[in-house]
């Protein structure tokens, strides 16, 4: 495929700028947790595209990623913790600090892949005052169902939860309903095999580079973690490791735009503008 040369910014620090006194409070703040192995603090696969769509609908929103020094977005955090605990603490800390600085602002928490798990966990750690101002949880390729299936806080009804998942004949196993005749992977080669086609879904030079890096890094880290975290999984739990190409399409398949529409249409967001 033809690879675009335009680069996206894999960092966004709108909330931190406000917390540090370098900008005025925004009426809406959105924080995003990137997926495993993604770069910067919002990555290249979903975060920049989601934020670009949001900016076109809610130009005043403060957009923020989770601190990469605290949230490594590595395979260890995913396999050993079901989503990085440190990442959840960092996300919650940023939200709490922002809420203390801007108590009237509406907050939206979001994440993709492992970042979705981090977002779920963070909701359990933010302060009650910040939670009261949290209008929604937005996730992409959310593996919550194949991990602990963490429930939403009572203050966030199902109508305030948007989750995007590739379904149909070719689906994202981390979030889609698994067919009864599905053959679960049982070996390292079964899991990493689909990565050969990951470059086919890359859009832009950064995603192409990320795809090439993932094709090397994921199998190597998975092999290193096999005995500690993988060998004891049941066949059904192996689905946690099925990072198929479909899992990397949320930024480019229209779902980031749909999620931005959801956020822009929330009553608290509309009322705050």
From TrEMBL:
Domain of life: Eukaryota
Gene3D superfamilies per record: alpha/beta hydrolase
Protein name: cutinase
Similarity comment: Belongs to the cutinase family.
SUPFAM superfamilies referenced in this protein's UniProt entry, alphabetically: alpha/beta-Hydrolases
Substrates-to-products reaction catalysed: cutin + H2O = cutin monomers
Assigned EC number: 3.1.1.74
InterPro entries: AB_hydrolase_fold, Cutinase/axe, Cutinase_monf
UniProt keyword annotation of Secreted present: no
Pfam families in the cross-refs: Cutinase
Organism listed in the record: Talaromyces proteolyticus
PANTHER family on file: CUTINASE (PTHR48250:SF2), CUTINASE 2-RELATED (PTHR48250)
Cysteines paired by S-S bonds: 25-102
Gene Ontology CC terms: extracellular region
GO molecular function, one term: cutinase activity
Gene Ontology biological process: carbohydrate catabolic process
Protein keywords: Disulfide bond, Hydrolase, Serine esterase, Signal
